[in-house]
Amino acid sequence: MAMTEMRMDEFLNELSSKAAVPGGGGASGYAAALGMALGTMVANLTTGKKKYAEYQEEIEDIIEKSQILTGELAEFMDKDAESFEPLSKAYGLPKDTEEQIQEKNRIMEAALLDASKTPLELMEKIYKSMLILQRLSVVGSSLAISDVGVGIQMAQAALNGASLNVFINTKLMKNTDVAKDFNSKADELLDKGNKLADQVYAAVVDRIRS
User: Fold this and answer.
1) Is the entire prediction scored with pTM above 0.85?
2) For the chain, what is the largest distance between any 2 Cα atoms, rounded to a whole number of angstroms?
3) Residue 79: its pLDDT value, please?
4) Which CATH fold would you assign to the domain 23-209?
5) Which pick of 47, 48, 69, 75 has the fewest CB atoms within 10 Å?
6) What is the domain partition of the chain in residue ranges?
7) Per-residue CA distances from 111 to 47, 84, 185 (Å)
8) At residue 90, does pLDDT exceed 90?
9) Which residues contact 194 (CB under 8 A, 6 or more apart)?
10) At a CB cut-off of 8 Å and minimum separation 6, what does 159 contact?
């Protein structure tokens, strides 16, 4: 069963078990999807309101894009598990002979590459959701603006969480050039994503308290 089809209690039970998946990657995908879903909710509560009529066309576009993005983020709950499974199996491969060691290293390197790509792709999607939430912090209904704040906090946590899954896998790569490239991309997303999230959160607090 796909994790997106699980009841919440089922997912939490799986997450808290000693099974290898779901883990931090799946939880990050879930958190990211929740953050974007909150953005969609704010947009839905804004659309059609006279007070925000000047943004109506933009709000409709946000609703469409954020709904798609929510689904894509949720898919990473399963993508994370799928990319980790080959790596999990690779750890258990025999290494009694030189030939086995070479084969294990080859399989491990390929598995580490896939296991690093997935959370990096998740980070890229999360940043897109952050940009939408940033705009909603300006044009979203003031009655639901706190939900933009919650959404950006969820997105920020997911971004930081996904980065850890990049770094823990690139650390084990023998191809240091690829590892450095992945780490550089993750660092860039962390830098601009965290700065953006802090700005959005501050803007939301300002709107609430002003």
Assistant:
1) yes
2) 74
3) 92
4) Four Helix Bundle (Hemerythrin (Met), subunit A) (1.20.120)
5) 48
6) 23-209
7) 45, 8, 19
8) no
9) 156, 159, 160
10) 28, 32, 123, 126, 127, 130, 189, 190, 193, 194, 197
d(CA 22, CA 59): 34
Q: Work out the average pLDDT over 162-166.
A: 97
pLDDT attached to residue 44: 98
Cα–Cα distances in angstroms (integers) from residue 78 to residues 5, 41, 112, 118, in the given order: 10, 24, 17, 10
Q: How many residues does the chain have?
A: 210
d(CA 100, CA 105): 8
The distance in angstroms from the start CA to the end CA of the chain is 47
Residue 63 sits at the vertex; the CA angle it makes with 58 and 64, to the nearest 5 degrees, is 100
Whole-number Å distance between alpha carbons of 132 and 148: 10
What whole-number distance in Å separates Cα of residue 172 and Cα of residue 99? 20
DSSP per residue, 26-81: HHHHHHHHHHHHHHHHHHHHHTT-GGGGGGHHHHHHHHHHHHHHHHHHHHHHHHHH
Which tokens sit at 183? 């780490």
Residue with tokens 């980065």, as numbered in its chain: 163
Q: What is the CA 64 to chain-centroid distance, rounded?
A: 19
